[in-house]
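User: My advisor, Dr. K., asked me to get a structural model of this assembly before our group meeting. I'm new to this, so sorry if the format is off. These are the inputs:
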Amino acid sequence: MASLRIGPAAAIEGRYRPPSDKSLTHRALMFGAIAAGVSRVRNPLGSEDAGATRRCLEAMGLRVEAVEDGWLLHPSEWHTPEGVLDCGNSGTTMRLLSGLIASRPLTATLAGDASLSRRPMGRIAEPLRLMGARVEGDRPPITIHGGGLRGIRYATPVASAQIKSCILLAGLRAEGTTTVEEETLTRDHTERMLAACGVSLDRHRDGERHVVSVHGGQTVQPFDFAVPADISSAAFFMVAAALLPAARLTLEDVGVNPARTGILDVLDQAGVKWFAEAHRDQMGEPVADLTIHDGGDLRPFEIGGGLVPRLIDEIPVLAVLATQCDGVSVIRDAQELRVKESDRIERVAEGLRAMGARVETREDGMEIEGPVQLRGATIQTDGDHRIGMAFAVAGLIAQGETVVEGSEAIQTSFPTFAEDLWKLTYA
Ligand code: S3P
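Assistant: The format is fine. Below is the predicted structure of the whole assembly, which you can bring to the meeting.
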């Protein structure tokens, strides 16, 4: 097991482009595998999660040609894979691919690592069964016998872009119309990217609900997509900049889809100064450069309701921020954290307490009272990349040394995390 040792830092500064977006890299690979021609993906994420999606798609017929700045994706008719599809640590791989497989006349078994094997798949199996697929298993491994789907109208029981995307991708080849209703809007990368590929979708509000429909039988046009940087990876550096006494950090080329920018709302609540500039667009995805200044006196914040899906992956590192805010910060409506790569409510609370923080957990979140001087401790990632990185950031402001054990998990989304953090911070 690898470990990462972190000592206190005084400053973080510079210009930095975080690694490319994980959600968008998964989707670019999958959409390239179903497009009606060759697509180009520039600066894709080169992490273990993205590798899992790539290998699964290759096992069913995609050819990925490496070119100077990324990939050319050569699709072909999908075929039944020879072995089990190994989705590694990646829930996105398993859930989105399931929708694509279920809508094709093939059979595949999808499995994952120990963490993914604990995660719920009934949430995608149920709608796929309603559409007519045969799905065995509600936890990995799952086996899907696909083909002959019909459209459904489905209200997602939990706020999850992975469930929504699975159903929409299945709907692309279902008979009739497939509609997904959400109480809270989750990240809409699938919708935006499909629209940019010429797929016609209907999106509207029905009272409080967000509704999206797709007609089956549409063609996905090939595309040329430069993947922006991942705001969920940038988040670790944003919080480091908010916490360190001397900070001015510009994060370049970051995807700022409003369904992903909840962290910026939290920085506002906490009183951290930031600004965005150089706004641009990549296949319907807004992109900007973000500059963060040191936070100064930090105010406590509240996360709940519709904000939760907009920052779901950032909560571990925002919990670290909360330890330095003057008062009680509250995180609620975030029970989904219990079924991420680890139980993130327990792992965050346990690690922060070991560092001296005051944390109360609830079923759907936690309360954190600050400010406290954190002290170095040994933290286990439990195979969860974001737990590893959040506690590395905590280590920057702790007294003494912090050891993150199981740091190989960070490869899932951010292979260069430790060296990049090292380059940008000063003791
Ligand atoms: C993702 C959606 C989120 C997020 C995950 C990636 C996606 O999961 O936590 O890291 O790419 O659609 P849920 O939609 O299940 O909450």
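One thing worth pointing out at the meeting: The longest strand covers residues 246-255.

User: Perfect, thanks a lot.
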